[in-house]
Design goal:
The protein is built from 4 helices and 16 strands. The protein is α+β, with helices and mostly antiparallel strands. It folds into 2 domains: 138 residues, Probable tRNA modification gtpase trme, domain 1 (Gyrase A, domain 2, 2-Layer Sandwich); 74 residues, Aminomethyltransferase beta-barrel domains (Elongation Factor Tu (Ef-tu), domain 3, Beta Barrel), CATH 2.40.30. It has a 6-stranded antiparallel beta barrel with strand order 11-14-13-12-15-16. It has a 5-stranded mixed sheet with strand order 8-9-7-1-10, with helices on one face. Strands 3-4-5-2-6 form a 5-stranded antiparallel sheet, covered by helices on one side. A hairpin with a 4-residue loop joins β12 and β13. The chain starts with 5 loop residues before the first strand and ends in a 12-residue tail after the last strand.
């Protein structure tokens, strides 16, 4: 797929500002990545977890005017704001929803882009992201969102709560360690103990993986079945004949046939995940 020179508006994204003298320390105690590595033009991919290490929110964090901007899920930003406010306590940090004032774009190809620009830290194939004031657009040909969605699914990159079940999915099952979303050396954060234990003591038995289907992807939640009719997982986000599926890794052994809603389903292991699959 050729995306060079194109810009795609990510209408599903919101923007939250965290500023003030305690902003960095406040975020550092919550997120899975090291806030010290975020700065102007340099973003982190990170998540907020339950104390049990399960997924709540994921987002990008970039330094801006002495504070930070969070590029997050637009439809779930109210819940993220609520949780941030709950943890703020007496920290000198101001948390502001800028989603009605700012928009997020994905841009591809060389050349400058206006606004707050950063490389997508998950995978170089996802290009750069740009946060701009509402009504401003990058100086590129505008492509439809399905262009970005097709690219994301081909690379096997999960998309927030569409693929990671809230309060259910462990982030190692969602491959965040392979997508530069976790720093195992940074110290404590909410859910850190379980995440570290899974990394060092437990074999991950389920993962989000890209799949292809012999037909249009069924709705999210449709079960994936093995050849004996037992459930091997379920479909998450999808478009046309590609999707993300939550699969038991034992179902990959021997490349046994899998199906979903009567369609043949074929799991793929992307290059960035090759070293992590032990099935």
């Amino acid at each position: 797929m050729t995306v060079a020179g194109q810009a795609i508006k990510l209408t599903g994204r919101g923007v939250i500002s965290v500023s003030g003298p305690d902003a960095a320390g406040f975020l550092q105690g919550l997120i899975t990545n090291d806030i010290r590595n975020a700065g102007p033009g340099r973003a982190l991919y990170a998540a907020l977890l339950t104390p049990q290490g399960k997924y709540l929110h994921d987002f990008f964090i970039i330094g801006n005017d002495g504070g930070f901007l969070l590029d997050c899920e637009r439809q779930r930003r109210a819940d993220l704001l609520r949780r941030l406010m709950m943890y703020k306590l007496r920290a000198k940090a101001e948390i502001t929803d800028l989603s009605e004032k700012m928009t997020v774009w994905a841009v591809f190809g060389t050349g400058d882009a206006e606004g707050i620009v950063f490389d997508d830290p998950r995978h170089p194939g996802l290009g750069r992201r740009v946060i701009v004031e509402k009504g401003v657009r990058p100086h590129r040909a505008v492509a439809p969102f399905k262009t970005y969605e097709t690219l994301r699914l081909a690379l096997g990159i999960p998309d927030g709560s569409r693929d990671m079940a809230v309060e259910k999915t462990f982030i190692l099952e969602a491959n965040l360690d392979e997508l530069s979303g976790i720093d195992f050396l940074k110290g404590c954060y909410v859910g850190q103990e379980m995440t570290a234990r899974m990394k060092h003591r437990t074999t991950v038995k389920k993962r989000l993986l890209p799949v292809t289907l012999d037909g249009d992807a069924p709705p999210a939640g449709t079960p994936v079945l093995d050849e004996s009719g037992k459930t091997a997982g379920d479909i998450r986000s999808g478009l046309n004949g590609r999707a993300i599926a939550y699969l038991k890794l034992e179902a990959l052994v021997g490349r046994r046939p899998l199906s979903c809603d009567g369609l043949r389903l074929t799991p793929e292991i992307p290059d960035w995940l090759q070293g992590a699959i032990t099935a």
